[in-house]
Amino acid sequence: MGCRVLLLMALVVSLGCGQAEQGGEAPAPASLPRVELGTQEWSTPLTSGELSAFTTIVENLPDRSVPDFSSSSVDFRGAEDFNSDELIKFIRDEYRSALDMKALGETWCENPELARRFEQMGVDPELFAALATRISLAWAASSIRHEIPVLATERKLGERLAHLKRRHDHPEAEMTENEKRLLMEEIEQTVAMSEFLLLLKTVPAESIDQVRALSPKLKDFLPDSNASAQFENVIESSPEVMRVGHTTE
Q1: Residue 19: strand pairing partners
Q2: pLDDT in tens, the chain (249 residues)
Q3: Neighbours of 247 (CB within 10 A)
Q4: Is residue 239 part of a domain?
Q5: Does residue 235 sit within a domain?
Q6: Does residue 172 sit within a domain?
Q7: What is the DSSP string of 196-246?
Q8: N or C: which end of the chain has fewer CB within 10 A?
């Protein structure tokens, strides 16, 4: 299932929420186990109990997979005349609004079968959405922190965004409408990468350790992360910005 970790990632990479490779239908609702989830802050380290609860829930959802997260891109209607600062704020606000786990849980429950499964297990969809997001981010961070120099990548993204802002606010006279649209999409992608990197920096080291320890089990539900390659592709796409190399910081 090609879903996104958050709307935030609707832009960048497919990280969380993969279809279990084992496949097969989950048990009938009457036989579902009860699972208790607690309320946790984003910065709270994951526990082995939470990861166990996550896999138990997913194994008993339709198709043995995490429901889709939002994957729509930013709608730029109404933002065409924004200057670069206004446009970036607009994009960031759109992405951050996707962290509304309550709204995501309500969307999931519009699916009657999915709502029944959650109810049978005694699972609050909002709490499950938050847990799935914390796990997905830890899963991504477990590879990205070793594969790219984070501080250098932040700097390069900042340089790239500054260049795009100049092009947006001082366009060439011959720039076509299609080129303007593509420029706005480049700004969106760069802001998305920056926001994603900020989220990954908040992942506790304990959470990364937990997902690595349970990676043989989690990999059935969380596909391989290609985020590192995506970061490099975005950086390399601008000739004015130097490539992010695999060097130590």
Answers
A1: 65
A2: 333 334 455 433 333 444 444 445 555 556 889 999 988 887 899 999 999 999 999 999 988 888 877 555 667 788 888 999 999 999 888 887 777 888 888 989 999 999 999 999 999 999 999 999 899 889 888 877 666 777 888 888 999 999 999 999 999 888 898 999 899 989 988 888 888 888 888 899 999 999 999 988 888 887 665 556 666 665 666 544 333 333 334
A3: 8
A4: no
A5: no
A6: yes
A7: HHHHHHTS-HHHHHHHHHTHHHHTTTSPPP-HHHHHHHHHHT-TTS----S
A8: C
Give the C-alpha separation, 193 to 189, whole Å: 6
- Rg for the chain (alpha carbons), in Å? 20
**For 9, which DSSP code?**
G
d(CA 247, CA 226): 19
Q: Phi and psi dihedrals of 19, rounded to 5? A: -75, 135
CB 68 within 8 A of CB 1: yes
Q: Quick one: tokens of 133?
A: 């997001």
Question: How far, in Å, CA of 64 to CA of 155, rounded?
Answer: 40
Amino acid at 228: S
Query: Hey, how many other C-beta atoms are within 10 angstroms of the C-beta on 204?
Result: 16
CA angle 86, 13, 126 (to 5 degrees): 80
Does residue 242 sit within a domain?
Answer: no
Structurally, the chain folds into a number of domains equal to 1
pTM, two decimals, is: 0.78
Contact in structure between 153 and 137 (CB atoms under 8 Å): no
Nearest to 75 by CA among 169, 27, 7: 7
- Residue 51: name the closest of 181, 207, 191 by CA: 207
Domain that holds residue 184: 7-226
